[in-house]
Amino acid sequence: MIITSYFPPEIGAASNRIYHLAEGLKNDYEVSVVTPLPNYPTGKIFATYKGKFSAKTEENGIKINRLWIYASVSKNKFLRLIAMLSYSFSLICFFIWNKIPDKVIVQSPPLLVSFTCMFFLRSKRRKLILNVSDLWPSAGLELGALKEGFAYKMLKKLEAFNYKKADLILGQSNEILTHVKTITTKPEMFLYRNFPEIEYPKLTKKESSDGRVKLVYAGLLGVAQGIYKLCNEIDYTAIEFHIYGSGAEEETIKHLINSKKDLPLYFHGRVNRNELHKVLLNYDMTIIPLLNRIYGSVPSKIFEYAKLGLPMLYFGGGEGETVIEKNKLGWVAREGNYKHLNTTLRSITAKDLNYDLKIAIQDTARLQFDFERQLESLKKIL
């Protein structure tokens, strides 16, 4: 059983990661998923599920239990707490009335949800696997979403409890596993990168008609990504900047584009993942930004774009820089330093972003970011 707060048809790295994990395990296990009624990132229950208290379906051989949640993306901390508590309450009811298998994978964060699972499902007869994708609440402190105080201390206690009750911890980065080891060495640790299971597209040689670099960003337009600030700070001298996605900053970005029509800045909205993979092949390079460096975070876009053969400009610091540089996937600009970002951008020409580079990146992805190879290693310790 996989318990997660995000699952398709919701978009984003978290839902894609859990979906591929479930798909990969179903040939060896009877897999079920427990997740809320779809609501992310809009904070509203998707139209297909409106008016339902729960939904039970089977999709591609996976049993999916969708539970009630008070959906909200409000910045009000009280409403966000209510949303997490509502899903936790639904989970407790589910645990009481349903048989739980002897292997359970729990997604963390949200901390309160994962704590509910680790507390109510702890049993010597059951193996609890904690899939840690972010170091909450430390990441919240770095992002400015949390402040040190009583609430932060309580979340740190929940975090420690979760790690100590796990039999196996899957960490999305080496930094995450290093952090866990400072709290407990009891559970087994496994580096489980967010390698996507997608087709390798056939690349073709293309030349830019005017010599300008076509730069693209695709993903969530949230506070952590800082796309609105990026739009204001970036040097457009030799580039045009294209944006795909949706999120909290969407309207401010649209307003900026409308107020500065002279800029080669374009917003294309949100497209589905399969279509996006085709669209991205029309661009020279992508940018992967984080407004602030988040310890433990390695954006999953790195592995996805590598399979597409898309050169990257990484602007987020941390372990992501190491992955980019070690595997020669593109360029790195110093985190938070927009002057260095623009200097780096001006140094990259359309000729640098050639067919040979894209083929080399794709070949690296085949060797280093293989989903099936990683999954087979995971199965040996489950």
Task: Give a structural overview.
The chain has an 8-stranded mixed β-sheet with strand order 3-4-2-1-5-6-7-8, sandwiched between helices. The protein has a 6-stranded parallel β-sheet with strand order 11-10-9-12-13-14, sandwiched between helices. Strand 3 and strand 4 form a beta hairpin. The chain folds into 2 domains: about 200 residues, Glycogen Phosphorylase B (Rossmann fold); about 160 residues, Glycogen Phosphorylase B (Rossmann fold). The protein has about 375 residues and is an alpha/beta fold. The model has no long low-confidence stretch (mean pLDDT about 90). The chain has 14 helices and 14 strands. It is globular.
Features:
single chain; 382 residues; alpha/beta; Rossmann fold; 2 domains; 8-stranded mixed β-sheet; 14 helices; 14 strands; 39% helix; 18% strand; globular
